[in-house]
Amino acid sequence: MIFVTGGAGFIGSNFVLDWLSQSSEQVLNLDKLTYAGNLQNLASLDGNSSHIFTCGDIGDSALVSSLLREHQPRAVLNFAAESHVDRSIDGPEDFVQTNIVGTFRLLEEVRSYWNQLEGSPKQDFRFLHISTDEVYGSLSKDDPAFMETHRYEPNSPYSASKAASDHMVRAYHQTYGLPVLTTNCSNNYGPYHFPEKLIPLTIVNALASKLLPVYGDGQQVRDWLYVNDHCSAIRRVLEAGKTGEVYNVGGWNEKTNLIIVHSVCALLNELQPRADGKDYNEQITYVKDRLGHDRRYAIDASKIERELGWKPAETFETGIRKTVEWYLCNLDWVAHVQSGAYRDWVQNHYAGNAQ
Ligand code: NAD
Ligand code: TYD
């Protein structure tokens, strides 16, 4: 079996669903169920004995140790993290605890488990760490896209905490020989994306006749990848990646935030027109910029394409249409995740932010 952490979050749950749709190999899923973790994402697996869920913290050494020893996984895939940049600016503590301390404790338990394996289970074991392009910092307009050799220049508490975890993962390979793999991926979008992030927030706010907040001038650039393409890249790296290596994953889809918001509005105009016949773009509002806002991310994914033969299946146009359609068909999921805690965050974060 494989051991997934953070498998009730956005990417982790898509990965678990994707994995079990193509494989009979069991998934052990450890997730703390923070505000971002949601078992409803995995409701279609109810009664499926291939999915074993445990609620808990990657930093709980005793729990991780007992899970490893009981289930004897052939691989650990670490998705668990605090993942929202704005929340990291508001309060970095949880990011340090989970992304740095938690990953360290997880690595320690995995090292101890791996040390007592022998023969091919030891040789074939993998620790795959899921990371982000944000560790590389910000690019200017004409800079080449991030390669795996780009220096680490994280600018937010989130990206700094992910960078620290990447370094620990690397060190466990260099120092102890742990067979690790790291992926650094660009911005994902797709089903089950928590509506605090740009694309789902825009969809959900538009449908609720709320304002669509664009930070600063809206000209920041991100490289967007449909979540299932990230899942296929992770599967491929697990299967064929060379231990100790880093693979950048991206969709070759650089877009400004304003273009992203316009694209979502255009699809909503087509699929779910406003009752008053007006354009959803009229709901756009420019708000105060994010502190230390990275201007541009761009991923050079040629290494994973060349060495592992991976390519994204979706273009931005096909992926964003699927995403908007999914939200329109899953408004009950949206209502469910918009708990009191979510509402409080959104209210506080955007209060008094109008430019
Ligand atoms: P998410 O916030 O949606 O989900 C994170 C999950 O981890 C949640 O289910 C949460 O309950 C769980 N979790 C948090 N702290 C935990 C802990 N201490 N122990 C166990 N579980 C814990 O995040 P996501 O967008 O799905 O991101 C998953 C991973 O992919 C993260 O490591 C993130 O850095 C990375 N990543 C995300 C993106 C993106 O665009 N979302 C892009 C590249 C890389
Ligand atoms: P986000 O989805 O938070 O991802 P990340 O910060 O990891 O890239 O934000 C994507 C971009 O959208 C980022 O440049 C910030 C911007 N943004 C807005 O303009 N308005 C918003 O309300 C949010 C949440 C993000």
Descriptors for this entry?
seven-stranded parallel sheet, binds nicotinamide-adenine-dinucleotide, alpha/beta, binds thymidine-5'-diphosphate, Rossmann fold
CATH fold-level label of the domain at 2-191 and 224-253 and 293-314:
Rossmann fold
Radius of gyration: 20 Å
CATH architecture assignment name of the domain at 2-191 and 224-253 and 293-314: 3-Layer(aba) Sandwich
The number of distinct helices, counting runs of at least 4 residues, comes to 13
Physical arrangement of strands within the biggest beta sheet: 3-2-1-4-5-6-10
Largest sheet: 7 strands, parallel
Helix fraction by DSSP (H/I, runs of at least 4) = 40-55%
Q: Could you tell me the mean pLDDT? A: 96
CATH class of the domain at 2-191 and 224-253 and 293-314: Alpha Beta
Quick description:
The chain is α/β, with parallel strands linked by helices and 355 residues long.
Structure explained in plain terms:
The chain has a domain at 2-191 and 224-253 and 293-314: Rossmann fold (3-Layer(aba) Sandwich), CATH 3.40.50. It is 44% helix and 15% strand. It has 13 helices and twelve strands. The protein has helices spanning 10-22, 61-71, 85-90, 93-115, 119-124, 157-176, 198-207, 227-240, 257-271, 302-308, 316-329, 331-337, 340-350; strands at 2-5, 27-31, 51-55, 75-78, 126-132, 180-185, 187-189, 212-215, 221-226, 246-249, 254-256, 284-287. A seven-stranded parallel beta sheet has the order 3-2-1-4-5-6-10, with helices on both faces. β5, α6 (157-176) and β6 (180-185) form a beta-alpha-beta unit. α7 (198-207) runs parallel beside α9. The longest helix has 23 residues, at 93-115. The radius of gyration is 20 Å and the shape is globular. Bound molecules: nicotinamide-adenine-dinucleotide and thymidine-5'-diphosphate.
